């Protein structure tokens, strides 16, 4: 005689739990991939920023914005559904925490590089602006050698004479 085994259909709570575990694992995998890619983009960008090669800056900025939006939306789903985090196996939750810490470190290094680049450019521009201002507001008069100071620069400006001396 053949023995037939029939499986009982899963009860609704078991089915819901299985589906939520699968959804949580899928969402965690998506989040892990986003974190990994975002970390890689920032790790690639940091040396380029420090080398002051801004030719690819727009590409990195655009990609970071896309990944950040994905990251925020995925984190929002986890924040709104705390049960999803509880459904995750401990290994996957630990892997997410570890990758999150790595993302924090890489983000801090990238932010420092961006801040340094910003300050360097700001100081450079201030130096140029101050130099231009000095050139525009030069006093006309005589140099130590007795030559008109602006004549040496091949610019002519009116010379004023103080007659009260």
Oligomer: single chain
Helix and strand element order: HHHHH
Distance between the termini: 132 Å
Count, helices = 5
Low-confidence stretches: 5-16
Rg computed from alpha carbons, rounded to a whole number of angstroms: 33 Å
Tertiary shape: rod-shaped
* Derived structural class: mainly alpha
* Overall mean confidence score, pLDDT: 78
* Total beta-strand segments: 0
Q: In percent, how much strand structure appears in the residues? A: under 5%
Helix content: over 70%
Biggest β-sheet, characterized?
none
Summarize the structure.
By secondary structure, the chain is mainly α. The protein contains 5 helices and no strands. It has helices spanning about 10-50, 55-80, 80-85, 90-135, 150.
Features of the shown structure:
165 residues, mainly alpha, 5 helices, 0% strand
Word description of this protein:
This protein has 165 residues and is an all-alpha fold. The chain has helices at residues 12-50, 57-80, 82-87, 90-136, 149-152. The chain is rod-shaped, with a radius of gyration of 33 Å. The model is unreliable at 5-16 (pLDDT under 50).
């Amino acid at each position: 005689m053949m023995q037939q085994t029939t499986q009982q259909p899963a009860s609704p709570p078991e089915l819901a739990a299985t589906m939520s575990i699968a959804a949580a694992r899928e969402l965690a995998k998506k989040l892990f991939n986003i974190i990994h890619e975002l970390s890689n983009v920032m790790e690639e960008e940091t040396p380029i920023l420090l080398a002051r090669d801004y030719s690819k800056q727009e590409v990195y900025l655009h990609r970071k914005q896309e990944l950040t939006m994905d990251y925020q939306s995925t984190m929002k789903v986890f924040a709104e559904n705390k049960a999803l985090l509880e459904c995750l196996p401990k290994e996957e939750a630990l892997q997410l925490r570890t990758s999150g810490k790595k993302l924090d470190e890489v983000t801090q290094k990238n932010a420092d590089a961006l801040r340094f680049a910003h300050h360097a450019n700001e100081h450079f521009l201030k130096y140029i602006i101050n130099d231009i201002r000095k050139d525009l507001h030069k006093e006309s008069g005589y140099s130590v050698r007795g030559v008109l100071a602006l004549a040496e620069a091949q610019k002519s400006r009116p010379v004023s004479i103080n007659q009260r001396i």
